[in-house]
Records
---
Amino acid sequence: MLNRRILRIKAFKVLYSYAENPDLTLKEALGNLDTSAEATRELYLYLLALIPALTAEAARRTEAARGKFNPTEEELHPNLRFVNNRVSALLDADPDFQRLLEKKKLSWEQDDAFVHALYESIKSRPWYAAYMAAPGDSLSRDVALWKHVFQEELEDREELAAILEDQSIYWCDDLSYALLACLRSLDGMAVNRRWDYPPLYQSEQLRAQGKQVEDDKAFVHALLTAAYGRFQDYAALVAGSVSKWDRDRLYTTDIVLIAMGLAESETFPDIPMKVTINEYVEISKYYSTPKSRSFVNGLLDRLLKERTN
């Protein structure tokens, strides 16, 4: 599930915590890294649980309309395509999915107002109207509908961002990645007609397919261990590579990013230097200042070349 880009981001965040709190031990840092990794998969489960929650919301409304004192013909004979969608039925019937939700205490019951508002939004979309009006039905059509929901309804909703922030400090920046994981699961359900719990690390999935790849957990643990162990040396190297005036304006995020790049290059010399630089430049776009991209790119490139010559 987790690829190396997001693992680098998680290691960067933990190293940043260490830079801000030097009392953080390596054991604690690695524990935080593992917790952060697992939290992304928990967020994936939480988002996927929206499917049965929204379906249940639709079913409740349908029954309430039928029970009105003077229901309309449409309320007496409603279109039940959404209520009976096969994706929700597969998740409801999957013992592993239900067991995981219960074990991790993941439920949308406490945020029923959000589920209500989200359902209203979905019903207003033209793709929902087309789904409800199309002749015939199939699992593939149900999957296509839910893909619309995950692609178009969730990423920029302020209410959802607030809910995720309240639920877990690790979820704030992982929404986009977790949504992609949900989309991959939906594609898999369309083909296999069942839900499969994704392995935590992408290397596990690739190895299950018979591919010879390095272990991603070992990679990110070794990366963080190296960056943690030599962080003070790397920070001094960065500070000594800029003018005194620039030194006073250094951002901790930039120091940490460059330290991560130096640690990765030394620990994994088989990874091309350009790849390492590009990875941390990309991360700088989201977690540092507008000028950090050029600063991290230039200084990391120079330091790595000096250390290899």
Note: The CA atoms of residues 258 and 300 lie 6 Å apart.
---
Amino acid sequence: MLRLPARFAAVILCFAPLFRQLTWRHAQVLLIGAILVPGQRTVTSILRISGLCWERRFVNYHRVLNRAAWSGRAAGRVLLGLLLDAFVPTGPVLLGLDDHIERRRGKRISAKGIYRDPVRSSRGHFVKASGLRWLSLMLLVPIPWAGRVWALPFLTTLAPSERYSQERGRRHKALTDWARQLVLQARRWMPERALVLVADSSFAALELLASLVRQDVTCITRLRLDAALYTPALPRQLKTRGRPRTKGERRPTLATVLADQATPWQRVTVPDWYGEGERVVEICSDTAVWRHAGLPVVPIRWVLLRDPSRRFDPQALLCTDLAQEPLQILRWFTQRWQLEVTFREVRDHLGVETQRQWSDQAIARTTPCLLGLFSVVTLLANRLSRHARLRVSAAAWYSKQRPTFADTLAAVRRQLWREQGFLTSRRACRSRKIRPALRDGIVHALCYAA
């Protein structure tokens, strides 16, 4: 069994109470092995890198995912607590919400569907993808040793296709219904903290926004340029019959405001525009009531922005907190891009879309665990950064000043291998011998890395 470094024990052992004693021994091997193994994140690959390729009871490790009794939601709560203590002990909590398509095929994957591929599609080109749709809630925090904001997943759920629900006689939940449940679950875990949620236009739904406003969650998302905006309703007069009014006079659409030559524009500098540094944009902002027949009425602050150099098309944002400054709304919303970066990193470095589970229980657990592993690796690297600076993989042809997630994962792996005796310090008076089974697993991983 792989040894757990003392520096990492304070983080990893926090998850031990969620499992039974024997299940935890197997789960700990899967956790550490998933960090160490390159390529596919299958249970068999993890057992090989852990030196357990001749373990006759290998089925017990599969049962951690497809049969053992433990709660992924409880694990998400523990992970969120660790992330808050490490990176956001006080102040408002910025959350990011987005969906991700995991490309999976097979007759036994019953929850899969056909969706629009957001990575390969564009405005004029529509691409379909068959797979599983996951909805992930992430914590957007600045990482001190990385020098930028990272999106750290802590709660992920599977949003099955409509066909899956019909075959089982269940009511189909829309993506906004799953989103509401995730955010309200986070609100229950953080009742005293101010929550700010950033999401893309898929979640610009009046029912979802109204539900979050009732729970005191500020939501920032895109707004259609042709949205129906109104002035707030006047106070109800005495002795007035009928229902109270929900809106006032109709206001011009944002497309009309954009085309109006008399619109006052203000130039502001956004400090970090999607990782490209500072960007000067022109904005105008006001408050209004967004209403549609038969749906809740939501007061919003809208922000219309355009690029003086015309490098991107004009767009509009909304914020359910009318007192927020437009520049602060822009700063929060531009951090949403880090969610896409996290999805790319977990595909490239943590093996998402390479797992081979077929049972419904294992499928529902494996991908959230791999996304949560991104946050666990960040927590482990944060403990290493307290004692030494993380190494940066740079070269004469590749200049890099700050560590990326690939460097972070390498630093955590280096510490784990050092604990197993594979890496020793030059100052060590004696070296620890590595077990033959573990050595064979390492050699197999290196030889079959491609």
Note: The longest strand covers residues 128-143.
---
Amino acid sequence: MTNRLEGKACIVTGAGGGIGLAIARAFAAEGAQVVVNDMNREAAEAAVEEIDASGGQAVANPEPIGTVEAADGVVRSALDSFGRLDVLVNNAGLLRDKMTHMMTEEDFDLVIKVHLKGTWACGRAALQHWRPLAKKEAATGAPSHRKIINVTSASGLLGAVGQANYAAAKMGIVGLTKTWAKESGRLNINVNAIAPAALTAMTEPLVEDPEAAKPRLARFALGRYGQPEEIAPSFVFLASQDSDYITGQVLCVDGGLVI
């Protein structure tokens, strides 16, 4: 433990399992207070219990990401519980994979709602809270850096068969990331994105059949998916002061999938 996030209050959406849970654990281990958001209340509460038992501080928030109301509620959880918000990780997501000609309007809309609109809404809520604070700090000569870390995907950067909805949402998140970085950089608000590739509940079915998985794994320079615990350190880096001069970037933490 190096306490790189000591005194910081962080939100991680979709943190009941997978990469989100690994991020929440890593943040807490670095001294952060964490809002563990997940629409699966039991998963969120279990994560909080684990973090508390390890000496960290966390609270659960069950808001279903995808609306302005939910986003406002998540930010309010941080402010009510910890009195501040320093880092927002937009990680919540789901899949509804189908070829475009088979995809329903509901399949498309739900993925866009959770990934793209959810990221936008949470970022909007955080920025609405941060901008007045940052302007006051600038006037007093004591600015603080605040961070948004969005989660995109190789599917958004390269496209993916059967994922028109997901790829569109994830590429849209790249656009949000770069736009927010330009809009808010003068206020010391850093906005970056990470494109991870790890074995989670969403990706494990893709490698259940070893023979069928070979062509997929051959796309990785390292020949494998990562573990969520291998992804989390990159989020700690972008949340910490070590990344204060980095903004508007997409970091691929994917074992050499996008190169």
Note: The mean pLDDT is 97.
